[in-house]
TrEMBL record:
Its EC number is 4.3.1.3. This is Histidine ammonia-lyase. It comes from Ensifer adhaerens. It is an enzyme of class 4 (lyase). Keywords: Lyase.
């Protein structure tokens, strides 16, 4: 049964991630009432002729151009049409759903002033799986992505229904809706704020959380194959380093490796293990600590109003506030931080893969090939991991410092939160692929161990799960097919 999330108070990043992955959204009565009240404030502003950015003025560098009442609907429509100038391949369905969910959550605060009918149309599209096609490139912040959603509401643009591309007007017809005639301020609200970056950030957090668990599992398998010190992850010594993430990773490793006959057999053969094995709690743990900070920032963003202008007061005393709440500086910095943390976890995974395949340090057949020379085994798989890790280093350069000037000096500092979130997702994808390679290499290493010593209980269980999906490799098939099978195992659940 599909999960339903009711938006009442501020959403949590896990709510947005759940909606991205197929959960339904609905508004509470209180949220709906907040939206209705905010709309009444906008109508009062229009009736009284009180100047409000994007309500009865132009936008950007045209903010001092007064728009008379009969042209305010045209302004809203024109904003959506002119801002829909993104290019490139569309966002994936999950990414687009995340953006829509964050947009709806922002409107539910009741400070944007859109009509409740507009929010309900967005909900209807999301819950029916009629997801707007959103070009992925061409935004320094949020405008072009969000405009592609607004297009569908006015009967333009296209949606993906999960099978085919459908015109926006047809998508509305399927829902029994007519294209919306946008009212004052609605055009600006539909393209404004940080929902694009926030939605993508929530999805990045969800994928990262799962992959960090798999990274710990992969490290445990590799350590059992290569390690020698059975007490490297003992609770007492690890407690000397203050880090919640480190302690959590240490506990996971102890659980995976508990009573390992393999580690007992190799104990004492080295004074200490190499850092890519010994420092797993420290590197993975630091990344987890960074994750928690980023999650806090994203939740603060979801609790915030990010529309500009925001409206407040009552119809009798309407207020409009031109602030910079649509600027996503906090999100840009947070997503840059997450990108670096995920890249670090990927980098240490690639180093562990190298140790598994390198006969100079592994004690295993060269490149995990059963017939070295005739077979290359995992030699080039490590190349692939190294290439992805190098790509991560390039992608991890901060987007939040890119800067730029737009709109004739009116918008003369840019924080690039959406590009920061987008490239964080790219690094997350690379981590998933690198971990798939490490998990397969570790399974292959078990197959080639010179002694038939038993594994720990949890590593044995995970080994069998891997082998159920992907058999032993003998240079008998394209290796990238195995990587994809392993990625599907990762995506199906926790280790």
């Amino acid at each position: 049964m599909t999960e339903t999330i009711t938006l009442d108070g501020p959403a949590d990043w896990t709510d947005i991630a759940a909606a991205a992955n197929g959960a339904r959204l609905t508004l509470s009565d209180a949220a709906r009432e907040r939206i209705v009240k905010a709309r009444a404030v906008v109508e009062a502003l229009v009736d009284r002729g009180i100047r409000g950015y994007g309500i009865n003025t132009g936008v950007g560098a045209l903010c001092d151009v007064i728009i008379d009442r009969e042209n305010q609907q045209a302004l809203s429509r024109n904003i959506v049409l002119s801002h829909a100038c993104g290019v490139g391949e569309p966002l994936g369905r999950a990414e687009a759903r995340a953006v829509m969910a964050a947009q709806i959550a922002n409107f539910a605060h009741g400070y944007s002033g859109v009509r409740v009918e507009t929010v309900e149309a967005l909900l209807a599209l999301l819950n029916a799986g009629l997801i707007p096609n959103i070009p992925s490139r061409g935004s320094v912040g949020y405008l072009t992505h969000a405009a592609s959603i607004g297009l569908v509401l006015i009967g333009r643009g296209t949606v993906n229904d999960g099978r085919e591309i459908v015109p926006g007007a047809e998508a509305l017809r399927r829902l029994g809706l007519q294209p919306l005639a946008l009212q004052a301020k609605e055009g600006l609200s539909l393209v404004n704020g940080t929902p694009c970056a926030t939605g993508l950030a929530a999805l990045a957090l969800s994928r990262t959380q799962s992959l960090f668990a798999w990274a710990d599992a992969a490290a445990a398998l590799t350590y059992e194959n290569l390690g020698s010190q059975a007490n490297t992850f003992a609770a007492g010594p690890l407690a000397l380093r203050h880090s919640p993430g480190l302690q959590a990773v240490g506990k996971t490793l102890r659980d995976f490796l508990a009573d390992s006959p393999m580690l007992k057999a190799s104990a004492g053969t080295r004074t200490q293990d190499p850092l890519s094995l010994r420092a797993v709690p420290h590197v993975h743990g630091a990344a987890r600590d960074a994750f928690e900070h980023v999650a806090e920032v994203v939740n603060r963003e979801l609790a915030s109003v990010t529309d500009n202008p925001a409206v407040s007061g009552t119809p009798e005393a309407p207020e409009v506030h031109s602030q910079a709440h649509a600027v996503g500086a906090a999100l840009g910095l947070a997503m840059d931080s997450l990108a670096v943390a995920v890249a670090e976890v990927a980098a240490i995974s690639e180093r562990r893969i190298d140790r598994l395949v390198n006969p100079l340090v592994s004690g295993l057949p060269a490149f995990l090939a059963g017939d070295g020379g005739v077979s290359s085994g995992y030699m080039i798989a490590q190349y692939t991991a190294a290439a992805l890790s190098a790509e991560n280093r390039r992608l991890a350069a901060p987007a939040s410092l890119d800067g730029g000037i737009t709109s004739a000096l009116q918008e003369d500092i840019l924080t690039h939160a959406t590009p920061a979130a987008f490239k964080a997702l790219a690094i997350v994808d690379n981590l998933e692929r690198i971990l798939a390679i490490e998990l397969l290499a570790a399974a292959q290493a078990y197959d080639l161990q010179p002694r038939s010593t038993a594994k720990a209980k949890r590593t044995e269980t995970l080994y069998r799960r891997i082998r159920t999906a992907v058999p032993h490799y003998a240079d008998d098939r394209p290796m990238n097919e195995d990587f994809e099978h392993m990625r599907h195992v990762i995506q199906e659940g926790t280790p």
